[in-house]
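Show me a record, fold above all:
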Amino acid sequence: GVWVQTDGNVGIGTTGPAAKLDVNGTAWLRGTGTNGLFVNSSGNVGIGTTGPGANLEVGWGSGHNRLKVYKPNNNSGSVYITAENDRVDGRAALELIGNHHSIGNVDDNDGTAYIDFQDDSSGDSFRFALRPHTDSLNLFSDSVTTGGGVMTWTRAGNVGIGTTGPVARLDVGG
């Protein structure tokens, strides 16, 4: 039931509300469907899900979605967690952005895992790419999407400088 005290505190599921709104049990604040905020009886909070299995669980429907953590009125630092479940392969990224510099990781559609370091003001960037289809770790420079290979390490122990396919312990190209 609902309980209203003389001091204006409202209790739902409790006869002694300790705050303006005190809910004992499950609470659900929602817009449409399962969008909204859900708190279960264990205290787990779900946003976009009615079955949170962790202290905080954020779920989305289909599409490209981001969770952003930042200091309001100050765009010099942000953390983005991105999930794309509208693609067959899915994609996830964690980006740390601060004052024209960023670090991010991406799981691309071919299974390659990336760590990007980028200076947004100059366009300079480096990308480490762990490529399972070639059993190698590559360092790229310039454009993170089309930049030339700077250095490659293979599972066999070969190191390439200026080549993405070293065939000797040290293979220098160019």
